[in-house]
Amino acid sequence: MKLDVVLRVVTKLMLPFMLIFAFYVQFHGDYGPGGGFQAGVIAAAAVILYAIMFGLEAGMRIVPPWLVEKMIPLGVIIFAGTGVVCMLLGENFLNYTALDHHSQKHAQEWGVFIVEVGVFVTVSSTMVAIFYAFGGRGR
Question: Could you please report the per-residue DSSP string of 65-86?
Answer without folding.
Answer: HHHHHHHHHHHHHHHHHHHHHH
